[in-house]
Amino acid sequence: MDKAKELRQRFFFPFIATIIFICIIVVRTPRMYGSMPNLRGPQKTCPFQISQQTITPLNNTKHLLVSTYMDQRVNGFDIRIIGIFRRDSIQPLHCLFCCAGYLSSTTTPATISQHSDNFGFPFVTTDVMCQIPPNCNATHIALLTQPECAILSNQIWLPIRNKNTNGKEAKKLQFNFTVCFSNLFGDYNNVLQFAQTLEMYRLLGVDRVVIYNTSCGPELDRLLQTYSQEGFVEMVPWPIDKHLNPSRGWLFSEHGGDMHYFGQLTTLNECIYRSMDRSRYVLLNDIDEIIMPYQHKNLMSLMSMLQQQHPNTGVFLIENHIFPKKHFEPSGRFHLPQWRGVPGVNILEHIYKEEPDRNIYHPHKMIIQPRMVEQTSVHEVLKNFGQHFKVPPDVCRIIHVRVCLQGSLTLQQLHVDKRLWDFTGKLIPNVDKVLKRAGLLTS
User: pLDDT of 263-321, one tens digit each?
Assistant: First the structure.
């Protein structure tokens, strides 16, 4: 009996201990893999579930994750995860990596950076910064609330993008200009102005438009499908309303809700990183705005001049000029019959603009070099690596057709600006073509 007891102690109990240890650290293989992994040597145990969503809840938190990018511009970090965090429940997080199919042996602590602009809302755009462990060819990342190596089979992994950029122009860029439009929501259906704006941008040299879509009207949806099919527009689903109660206004004290303007700040930052390894310049402005050069035929000529004059500048601030949509050009020459059945504003009919009141805060929008920007707000960047420059309005300004800002001004106090008419020879037939392809022209 003593010998048998000794054998059990020497062989049986260590075997049981080994099995328990394996159960702790090895992730169960999903059914789709069909069999348990070979437990000898390194395991291809990740990723199991790769998020295919643009908004992914983070397990055991109130936070949401959006996307992950390689970013080695800040010393000590390799990875930036863009997220939406609840400000009153920030807790320590830990980064776990999938290294070319193999689970990393250790986690690294995450550094959490809330953006300074939150406008009083409970949720804020947040960057989670991680360091890749040595000898890891990282392809995917998971965030954990505890640093242990045990991972559940339902752990969600995010793919790491921009792996070949690292903040530098490591490869030839695909586009010169990308326009980032933040959010479509509330069944927005301003079809005519939208088509005119996109076709105007095409004439100015824009190669790509990125749009974050929560909801839009049926006619605009048809137009967007047309643009997406030809590759000019990249549509990013943005179901923020499925996760939070998004605000329709910019200030929490007035509008309430969980987050500013359906997550506008998050989408602008996400679009910068989405474009970082593909586009030389990114324009950050709203759907009803056109960043218009006044001394150059296109944006490339404009930026070549500005970049030569300001070589260390990565942020160019463009002044906003409002064209009240209640005032119409009197001749009616662009009140075209084929557009009468198309919903939306005809920007060619609005030539009267307000002169900005520069005695009070006057907002700008931006043209940026994405590799020189770390964090942005709506009207200014929050963190960047270069200088910024306010472009004089006689060189470039925004044509913004909307409700008036200075409602007390009479027509005689407004200024005539017919810059858009310089492009009508090409703009009108191009708008007609795209509306016809979308089936939105009746004649």
Answer: 999 999 999 999 999 999 999 999 999 999 999 999 999 999 999 999 999 999 999 99
The H-or-E segment that residue 40 falls in is none
Longest dimension (CA), the chain: 111
The region, left, alpha or beta by phi > 0 then psi within -120 to 50, assigned to residue 285 is: beta
Checking phi first, is residue 385 left (phi over 0); if not, alpha (psi -120 to 50) or beta? alpha
Beta-bridge partner residues of 284? 180, 366
Bin 407: left if φ > 0, else alpha if -120 < ψ < 50, else beta.
alpha
Assigned fold of 175-437: Spore Coat Polysaccharide Biosynthesis Protein SpsA; Chain A (3.90.550)
CATH of 49-161 among 1.10.357, 1.20.120, 2.60.40, 3.40.630: 2.60.40
Q: Which amino acid is at 200?
A: M
Q: Break the chain into its structural domains and give their ranges.
A: 49-161, 175-437
**Each residue of 279-294: pLDDT tens digit?**
999 999 999 999 999 9
The SS3 assignment for 306 reads helix
Whether the upstream peptide bond of residue 109 has omega within 30° of 0, thus cis, is no
Q: pTM for the complete prediction?
A: 0.88
Supply the DSSP string of 224-251, one letter for each residue: HHHHHHHTSEEEEE--GGGTS-B-SSS-
CA gap 143, 85 in Å, rounded? 13
